[in-house]
Design goal:
single chain; 6-stranded mixed sheet; Pyruvate Kinase, Chain: A, domain 1; alpha/beta; 3 domains; M1 Pyruvate Kinase, Domain 3; 8-stranded parallel β-barrel; about 475 residues
């Protein structure tokens, strides 16, 4: 049977979860979607895992979603002659383009774009923000900095530049190769890293076309400055709290998370909250109370999906982490006040066009018509279901589509239970019959109940949500 909870679980596949048994257990534990992190692993490894997910999903009667997460530009320092150095507060430290192992005075930074963008007074964050360097002077291939916050620094540690927009594309040569492979493999969504502006999303859309949907990862302050435009251009959004928490003051991350979620609700874009949700479960079989509250807060906020990263990719308890996530979601959604909280956070500008008006009306009708048990959305592209889910109705959303790829893509959409039916889109007379049949067979409705149907006419034409119909099941 389709999953009954509304909030989705996105689990990252890695060394701890790549075998067939563990993937099967993750599906049984409640994972709706799987993230393939192209920062790690070979194409051959990803293809093997892809085939396992697809085969197991078919055997279990599921439509598991597969997300390809592109690495994006990785800004890192070079190597040190002694492996690592200790930087002391107040000392000078030079970053340059010289391919010579570093020492306590200098290290290579092989990114000319950084030297072109920085200026005296700018801060550079190294090693996840644990080391802070302030630029004193710079040229086109070097920078003299002062250590503001010192610490131990080893080779290949990352560099973050808060509030500095770099003149580089979000899509590297490696990403283009990975993207071509992922699209040929048949992934459902592509996750775009290092999004600095709306132009990065436009570039990705030209490369991807209609072969997959795009998730923009929001991890740069410059992206927040163009939030609404990026949300509108993207098919989905990920709140990437890892780098976001490095580049922005930590105390602002919860505020930004709510701001991003609200923008996604406004424009009917699925939103995923990611990073450190159950971090302690990498090593321990149970999470901290704070982590449980973090997941619960995201669910109360109405996010479409919560994500597990290292917990399932490299942790000791990948299946237990998904089970715990599922328990938290189930508990929150059982709260009688759950839907009241969601309605309080409903964006004001909910009706912006014909399709928006239809799906808004469907949600309103469900509140006043007796015994309405489900909203059935007929969709060729998934867009109608996106719009219905935006309203967060307190009854099941049944998405009927003729396209298995659309059914898989909807695995990241809040509350969507997915069914494949091709005959529905061949005759208007079949609309009611199939909707009633699906509602009865799925167990969400029985005789004497009402269901609401939304869809488009002419049949099967994408982007034409213009029909709302109520049906009494005699």
């Amino acid at each position: 049977m389709p999953k009954k909870s509304y909030t989705r679980i996105l689990a990252t596949i890695g060394p701890s979860s790549a075998d067939e048994k563990t993937i099967s257990d993750l599906l049984d534990a409640g994972a709706d979607a799987f993230r393939f992190n192209f920062s790690h692993g070979t194409h051959e490894e990803h293809k093997e895992r892809y085939d396992i997910v697809r085969r197991l999903s078919a055997e279990k009667g599921l439509f598991a979603t597969i997300v390809a997460d592109l690495q994006g530009p990785k800004l890192r320092v070079g190597l040190f002659a002694e492996g690592k150095v200790l930087l002391k507060e107040g000392q000078e430290f030079v970053l340059d383009m010289n391919d010579i192992p570093g020492d306590e005075n200098r290290v290579m930074l092989p990114h000319k774009e950084i030297f072109a963008a920085i200026k005296p007074g700018d801060d550079l964050l190294l090693n996840d923000g644990n080391i802070v360097l302030t630029v004193k002077s710079c040229t086109e291939n070097s920078a003299v900095t002062e250590v503001k916050v010192g610490g131990e620094l080893s080779g290949h540690k990352g560099v973050n530049l808060p509030n500095i927009k770099l003149p580089i594309s979000a899509i590297t040569a490696k990403d283009r190769d990975d993207l071509s492979f992922a699209l040929d493999m048949g992934v459902d969504w592509v996750c775009l890293s290092f999004v600095q502006s709306a132009d990065d999303v436009r570039e990705a859309k030209k490369l991807i076309g209609d072969r997959a949907l795009i998730i923009s990862k929001l991890e740069k302050p410059s992206a927040i400055a163009e939030l609404e435009e990026i949300v509108k251009l993207s098919d989905g959004i990920m709140v990437a709290r890892g780098d976001l928490g490095v580049e922005c003051p930590l105390q602002t991350v919860p505020v930004l998370q709510k701001k991003i979620v609200n923008a996604c609700r406004k424009y009917a874009r699925p939103v995923i909250v990611a990073t450190q949700m159950l971090e302690s479960m990498i090593e321990k079989p149970t999470p901290t109370r704070a982590e449980v509250s973090d997941v619960a807060t995201a669910v109360y906020d109405g996010v479409d999906a919560v994500m597990l990263s290292a917990e399932t990719a490299a942790g000791k308890y990948p299946v237990e982490a998904v089970k715990m996530m599922n328990k938290i979601i189930t508990q929150v959604e059982a709260d009688p006040l759950f839907f009241q909280y969601m309605k309080r956070q409903q964006p004001l500008s909910c009706c912006m066009g014909e399709a928006d008006s239809i799906t808004f009306a469907a949600s309103e009708i469900s509140k006043v018509l007796n015994n309405v048990r489900a909203v059935v959305t007929y969709t060729s592209s998934g867009r109608t279901t996106f719009l219905v889910a935006r309203e967060r109705p307190d009854i099941p959303i049944i998405a009927v589509t003729p396209n298995i790829k659309v059914a898989r893509q909807l695995g990241l959409v809040w509350g969507a239970r997915r069914f494949i039916n091709e005959s529905t889109f061949q005759s208007f007379d079949r609309f009611e019959d199939v909707a009633i049949s699906v509602a009865l067979e799925s167990g969400v409705a029985t005789h004497g109940d009402h269901i609401i149907i939304t869809g488009g006419f002419p049949l099967g034409v994408k982007g034409r949500t213009n029909m709302l119909h109520t049906v009494y099941i005699a």
